[in-house]
Design brief:
Layout lengths: L1 E10 L9 E8 L4 E5 L1 H9 L12 H9 L7 H9 L6 E3 L3 E5 L6 H14 L12 H8 L1 H5 L3 E8 L5 E8 L5 E8 L4 H22 L5 E8 L6 H12 L3 E4 L2 H13 L4
Parallel strand pairs: 8-9, 9-10
Antiparallel strand pairs: 1-2, 1-4, 1-5, 2-3, 6-7, 7-8
Helix pairs in contact: 5-9, 7-8
Length: 267
């Protein structure tokens, strides 16, 4: 066994949500590197991005590989520095992490890359663990409205910034209600507040883009039930409410509110 380092490549399909999705791995040791980007993970990203073409990320791996191949002869320190410079608006390169190669064979890096892709990147099939995403929780509760077309998933609005902004659900006709979801079940206060800031900005950007105050917003925030995060979660809620949205942390409360608005739209 010998030491090696790796980073996780992540992509942000919707900057308004700031949710990073794992798409690949770069692993290296003193001799060289290997990189792998998982196609299934790319497909998952494009499904959640309102502006990416279905094959819009396929060029990412060859372009990044072309950049990383510039470190010749291979030098681990120069390679690490080059990796750090690949961070951009939507592509995130994590800080290096330590791992070990299973043996000293010529294909040890390839074996380790496959192991890390399987453990860290490849989407797991639903097996009842980890819980549903906030959007999936609401989708189950909105089935009646989705089936009869009173509500549509993934409605895209153009913000005043010129960016397309996707909302999880939109109740059409006279209801004019946008329901969005935000995963706040993380442990770092800075992450919670930055996600709330991004959500608030998205709401303001949409309102300015459509030049109307008539669109109502409800945001379902999936929070972590931790007393130490209570004040941080409260601050995050106030931030989103300052943009003119109602915030709920219980999906059943969101369902009840939507039922009422769709059946009797607010004026």
């Amino acid at each position: 066994m010998r030491p090696a380092d790796y980073v996780v490549l992540r992509y942000i399909p919707d900057p308004g949500r700031s949710e990073e999705m794992n798409i690949g791995i770069v692993v290296w040791d003193q001799e060289g590197y290997r990189m792998g980007v998982d196609r299934a993970a790319l497909d998952r990203v494009t499904r959640q991005s309102p502006w990416l073409a279905p094959d819009g990320l396929l060029a990412l791996e060859p372009l990044l590989s072309q950049t990383l191949d510039q470190v010749r002869p291979f030098d681990p320190d120069a390679f690490r520095a080059l990796l750090e410079r690949q961070n951009r608006d939507s592509l995130v390169v994590t800080d290096p992490r330590y791992t070990t190669l299973s043996d000293n064979s010529l294909n040890a890096l390839d074996v380790t890359l496959d192991r890390l892709l399987a453990r860290v990147v490849r989407p797991r099939k639903n097996s009842g663990g980890g819980g549903a995403s906030p959007e999936a929780e609401l989708r189950k509760r909105f089935r009646e409205w989705l089936d009869n077309k009173a509500m549509e998933p993934g409605r895209v609005f153009q913000g005043s910034s010129g960016r397309n902004r996707k909302i999880a659900f939109y109740a059409n006709s006279t209801a004019n209600l946008a329901v969005d979801t935000l995963r706040l079940g993380v442990s770092k206060a800075d992450d919670i507040l930055s996600r709330a800031d991004a959500e608030a900005f998205k709401i303001v950007d949409i309102r300015r883009g459509i030049k109307s105050d008539q669109l109502q917003f409800v945001v379902y925030c999936a929070i972590k039930a931790d007393p130490q995060l209570a004040e941080v979660n409260a601050n995050a809620q106030r931030t989103i409410e300052s943009a003119g949205a109602l915030v709920r942390t219980d999906p059943d409360e969101v369902k009840a509110l939507v039922d009422e608005v769709i059946r009797l739209p607010l004026l």
